[in-house]
Amino acid sequence: MDVPNPWEQKNNDEELIKQRMSRVKHKIAIISGKGGVGKSLVTVNLAVALARDKKVAILDSDLTGPCVPKMLGLKGARLDAGPAGIGPATGPMGIKVVSMDFLLPSDDSPVIWRGPLKMSAIRQFLGEVNWGNLDYLLVDLPPGTGDESLSILQLLPNMDGVVIVTIPSEVSQSVVKKAITFARKMDVPIFGLVENMGGMVCPHCGQLIEVFGGNGGARVAEEMGVELLGSIPMDPRISTDSDEGTPFVVMHPNTPAAKAFKKIVERIEEKVKQS
User: What domains are there in the chain, each with its CATH number?
Assistant: First the structure.
């Protein structure tokens, strides 16, 4: 009786991942030190801004709390399987999406997995999905520095860099430093910091109100020696659009927040050209 060799399977998986990712020009991970900072929201809107003239995909690797599909109006979508591999769902602007959410029977179904199962799922998403030819693959990592984040950064060949999301609260700023240190220990280039909820634009007078205190993102960026890619002001329509599955940068392109997203994308594209 032949006994399966786990090392041989691991090597096969990694070779398949390498083949799939060879068709992706640029791979960027979006990470945060803690939850609740709007990391997935930033991922989705950056993807939409990039997709105006690029082929873009999102891997939602937050296995226990996937929310990218809802933000792109893909709730209820399913993945297809064929000879070429697993087919991702397609959202606005032609963005390809793979998420654990597509595999769950209902919204209230939890994913109760230990590390090995999570790593197996990540390997399948990277190696068995037919991503096709892409300009950008954005990987929305779960909060913190756990199994999923570690697996992605170890498995993805030639990662271009990471974008780190925070908000201007002292709690978030203290935790985001761990994410920056994590990326450095993994020897992955850090494109910079994105400050979400960077104040709120008054709908009546247009003045920026510093809800959490000003310049928090800039202080952390300076202290940790990374670039502040941009600060996104709060806009109630961001939450409304996300709940309705309509990307904010498409629905309200002339708002300060949408313009901030676009400037961040421009800076990321400059970083990619330099890498």
Answer: 16-274 (3.40.50.300)
